[in-house]
Design goal:
The chain is of the alpha/beta class. Strand 10 and strand 11 form a beta hairpin. It has six helices and eleven strands. It starts with a strand and ends in a 13-residue tail after the last helix. Helix 3 packs across helix 4. The strands form three sheets. Strands 1-2-4-3 form a four-stranded mixed β-sheet. Strands 5-6-8-7 form a four-stranded mixed β-sheet, with helices on one face. The longest helix has about 30 residues. Bound molecules: zinc ion.
C-alpha cells in the first residue's frame, strides 16, 4: 500500500512486529515503512511526518552519491564488465566498431571522428549482448528453482532501478547497467523480479522467498547498490 506524505510516496507494509521501521532505499531514495498490524494509517502518517527532515536528508545523500563521471570513451577511462574493472583503450579503424576484452584492457575500436554519443550507442549495445547472455544463462535456473516463470523479458537502459516487472503480463525488464555488475548481482535481480510474480510488495512473504532461495541476498543487494551508478546523462532514444 502506498500513501503520500508531504509529497513523498511511502510504501507501507503491515507486519507482526512491535515497532515501526522506516527505510529510505538507494539508489532512488524510495521510502518504505514496516508497521505493526494494529496501527492505523493515521498514526503511520503522523510518524512519517516527524521523520520528513531525515528522509529528505537521506534522499539528498543518494542524489549526491558518487556516480561514474560522464563517459568520453577515450583511452584510460575505467570500464566495468560483470564486476571487473578494465581500462579503455581506444583504437581507430574504418572496418567497423568492436570491443574486445584483453587482460585488464577493454579495446574499443571505432572511427576516429566518431562522436561520444556514437561510441556510447555502440558500447550500450555491446553491454546489452553481455547482459542478455547472463540472463539467458541464469533466468531458466531461477525459474526452475522457484517454480515462478515469466512470460517474456527485455533489457532496458534505466537510471534508478535494476529491474522491474509487470505482474499482469509477467514481463520482466532488466537494467542494461547490470552488465557492469558481478553475476551474483544479476542473479539477485532475476530472483527479486521473479519473486514479484508471486508477491507484489516487499513484505514478509516476499522476503521469505528471497531468504529461502538466496540466504545471502542482503549482502549481494548491498554490493549492487554500493557500486557506482552510471552518469545520469540525457538518455538516448535507443532505450
Ligand atoms: Zn522489488
Amino acid at each position: 500500500m502506498y500513501i503520500e506524505v508531504n509529497g513523498i510516496s511511502v510504501e507501507i507494509t503491515k507486519k507482526n512486529i512491535k515497532n515501526m521501521h522506516l527505510y529510505v532505499q538507494p539508489p532512488d531514495g524510495r521510502v518504505q515503512v514496516s508497521a505493526p498490524k494494529y496501527l492505523s494509517d493515521e498514526s503511520i502518517i503522523l510518524f512519517v511526518r516527524t521523520k520528513i527532515g531525515w528522509i529528505k536528508k537521506q534522499q539528498e545523500k543518494f542524489k549526491n552519491q558518487p556516480r561514474q563521471t560522464e563517459r568520453q570513451y577515450v583511452s584510460g577511462e575505467s570500464f566495468y564488465v560483470l564486476g571487473k574493472q578494465y581500462y579503455l583503450q581506444v583504437t581507430y579503424s574504418y572496418k567497423g566498431n568492436s570491443l574486445v576484452l584483453s587482460g585488464d584492457k577493454a579495446i574499443l575500436t571505432v572511427r576516429k571522428e566518431s562522436t561520444v554519443s556514437q561510441r556510447e550507442a555502440f558500447v550500450r549495445e555491446w553491454y546489452r549482448t553481455v547482459l542478455k547472455a547472463e540472463i539467458e544463462k541464469y533466468l531458466p535456473k531461477w525459474e526452475k528453482k522457484t517454480g515462478l516463470y515469466c512470460e517474456s523479458w527485455q533489457t532496458k537502459y534505466m537510471t534508478t532501478r535494476w529491474g522491474t516487472c509487470n505482474v499482469n503480463t509477467k514481463k520482466l525488464w532488466f537494467n542494461l547497467q547490470l552488465a557492469k555488475k558481478p553475476s551474483e548481482c544479476i542473479e539477485y535481480v532475476i530472483l527479486h523480479e521473479l519473486a514479484h510474480l508471486k508477491v507484489k510488495n516487499h513484505g514478509e512473504e516476499f522476503v521469505a522467498i528471497l531468504d529461502h532461495y538466496m540466504p545471502n541476498w542482503r549482502e549481494i543487494k548491498k554490493t549492487l547498490n554500493e557500486q557506482i551508478l552510471d552518469y545520469l546523462g540525457p538518455v538516448s532514444k535507443n532505450e
